[in-house]
């Protein structure tokens, strides 16, 4: 288990960590630090001392305004901030996971997130599509996470919580059972150390795996019928939330997948950064589908953000992706993809439904200084509009001399995930069916569930 536990830190160090988190999430500090950064960059090594002391004064002013909770006030050095541990599999990290992390952060001062080990998950739940390194990368990139512990047990104990220095454990109101048939959080609950938040309805890994299963093709040595679905009609109907006869299968495969995830304006506000770029900011733009979010996406977003101090992410709408990537895509709809991107700490703002072709008008109105793209291609071999492939979507920024290609370090994409799925499709179908029953039970029996925070 690779860990960055808090148990080795003393109270003073924990206080610093908390201060760091408060500062990190304070918009005024973000603004001041970018001003300072800009000054350093524009004046080379010569810092304008007058401007610097003004910034220093503003920083001090802001620090005095920070409201520290009584438990961490500097007058009581013996008490320490509340550390909350939450964990999960986080396979195909989705907006429900990010909403769970967001709620957990509100339950304490410092949030530690454990990502369950591949071996433990396989034993208790079934195979994962992404390995622990890939799953952890998404959690690490989430803006509400302070500490990540990679390879944690599927059933955490009170002893484990003490070892990592957590005061509480948080979990959604859908308590899992482990391979021994025991509630994974029973021991912690009995010790009064469990905090429960509301599970986000309408989205789950199982649901996304179902969407992938229903649109993948049967693997075969001599695959003559590429359109043959690998799964039963029942599964396709369930995932597409449709009722149809077996003869209507082809038509059904073309139907868009319905999602029950609610994109309320309240939720959007909770995810937003409420940041706008200043005139002096170096604004970077990157676009894409960002369908199933993976380690490659967060790495390219990190690289893009490092090139400036404000990152716009343009996310294409469902019909644009469908047109350029083929009939089965996107797997994750525009609203869900927007939430995933807003949860990422490298993203400042999202352009919801960005155009495929970057126009001069968009570049000017967003004051974009640099457009970047990963080396992974934007096109797909199954695209239905072959003629459009001759048009370069980055023609305008290239002409303006503001385009840069960033090396993609990970070649993970939807197709590769589908290949992983196909390698062990029986295992996934079995897991899907087991989990779907559990999810149906959850929706049927939910009563007295906590309110979303
Ligand atoms: N979670 C949530 N809402 C969802 C999905 C997950 O609040 N729609 C929460 C879970 O309650 C848990 C955490 O996210 O506290 C991690 O969940 P995970 O272990 O990955 O597994 P599942 O709950 O099984 O998630 P999924 O059904 O998506 O696999």
Average of per-residue pLDDT values: 82
Strand ordering within the main sheet? 3-2-1-4-5
Report the β-strand fraction as a percent range: 5-15%
Low-confidence stretches: 68-74, 219-227
SS element count, helices: 19
Largest pleated sheet: 5 strands, parallel
Q: What is the terminal-to-terminal distance?
A: 31 Å
Main structural class = alpha/beta
Net shape: globular
Ligands in the model, by name, code or SMILES, are:
cytidine-5'-triphosphate
As a whole number of angstroms, the C-alpha radius of gyration is 24 Å
Extended strand count: 10
The ordered string of helix (H) and strand (E) elements is HHHEHEHHEHEHEHHHHEHEHHEHEHEHH
Q: Oligomeric form of this entry? A: single chain
Helix share of residues? 40-55%
Describe the structure.
The chain is of the alpha/beta class. Helix content is 42%, strand content 12%. Strands 3-2-1-4-5 form a five-stranded parallel β-sheet. It has a five-stranded parallel β-sheet with strand order 8-7-6-9-10. Helix 2 (27-42) packs antiparallel against helix 3 (49-65), helix 9 (205-215) packs across helix 10 and helix 9 (205-215) crosses helix 19. The radius of gyration is 24 Å and the shape is globular. The chain binds cytidine-5'-triphosphate. The site of cytidine-5'-triphosphate has 16 residues, from strand 1, helix 4, strand 4 and helix 9.
Topology:
Blueprint: H1 11-24, H2 27-42, H3 49-65, E1 83-88, H4 95-106, E2 110-116, H5 118-124, H6 132-140, E3 147-152, H7 158-164, E4 168-172, H8 186-190, E5 194-197, H9 205-215, H10 233-240, H11 249-254, H12 265-271, E6 283-288, H13 295-306, E7 310-315, H14 318-325, H15 334-342, E8 349-352, H16 360-365, E9 370-374, H17 395-399, E10 403-406, H18 414-423, H19 425-445
Parallel strand pairs: 1-2, 1-4, 2-3, 4-5, 6-7, 6-9, 7-8, 9-10
Helix pairs in contact: 2-3, 9-10, 9-19
Residues 86, 88-90, 96-97, 100, 171-172, 174, 199-200, 203-206 line the site of cytidine-5'-triphosphate (CTP).
